[in-house]
Specification:
mainly alpha, 2 helices, Antitoxin, BrnA_antitoxin
C-alpha cells in the first residue's frame, strides 16, 4: 500500500446521479413485516423489495383509489 495517492487526474463518477438516495419514511409495522417475510422467501433485502415495488408502481403509473369517509 502506498503512503500517498495522486488523485489529481481523478474524475467524477458518471453514474453518481443514478445512485439511490437515502430517505426517512414511516411505515406501519404490518407493512414492514410483510416485506421482511417476502424477503426471506426470495432472498432479497426487504428495503430492495419495497424499492422494486414502488418503482413498478411508478413506471406503470398505478394510482390509489382513495375515498375518505
Amino acid at each position: 500500500m502506498r503512503k500517498e495517492y495522486d488523485f489529481s487526474k481523478a474524475r467524477k463518477n458518471p453514474y453518481a446521479s443514478m445512485l439511490k438516495k437515502p430517505i426517512t419514511i414511516r411505515l406501519d409495522e404490518d407493512s414492514v413485516n410483510y416485506f421482511k417475510s417476502v424477503s426471506k422467501e426470495v432472498g432479497i433485502p426487504y428495503q430492495s423489495l419495497i424499492n422494486l415495488y414502488l418503482r413498478d408502481c411508478a413506471t406503470s403509473h398505478k394510482k390509489l383509489n382513495l375515498s375518505w369517509k
